[in-house]
């Protein structure tokens, strides 16, 4: 039974509808009082959303106002007549239409994201889905379906799960949107994006993605929410957005857990 299924705490046999939902909530609340949930990042009781108080205070969550095109934080609110996009997005817009990130990718967030991505710590998936549901609420409201950035089958076998799919699934379920895990595939293996320049990243994934025939029918004319873990230069998301648009999607928006402070440049 997966973490996303909620385990035994999320099931009440023979009870349906609002009664089941209320009973589940009451049961979870009572269990949390008797056995306070531990933070994912320590052995302390969780302060909020599964993080210890110290870790929670250090995560740089991105709040409005942010750039509509890349999710970068604006230094101040320019008011009703301010541009909704940063200078970089106005000058050179991404292939995806809009983007949102829950937090900045830095020392505070990197550890838990890497534990999730490379450490097989799948218990972080519902936590990150909740973060994204808040930061990307305007994108979710207008989306028709959710598509995770895919892994090549070789990497999927070695990692055993697709981190983007583990976030996208509960996100789509909570928002009651279609979840399309097989619409977009990665038939071409690529080297890791780590350490590459912005141009190197773009070339590395330029022809890495494709839309399946079944996926083409399900995305045609629809606004898609593409989900990934981290936005670095935007090369991977751009490559995905381009093939989705070419296959008939009406628009593609992007939601990620975190973004580097300057997504136009690789992190130092």
Automatic annotation (TrEMBL):
Transmembrane segments: none annotated. Belongs to the ComF/GntX family. Residues 215-267 form the Phosphoribosyltransferase domain. It holds the Pfam family Pribosyltran. This is Competence protein ComF. It comes from the Bacteria.
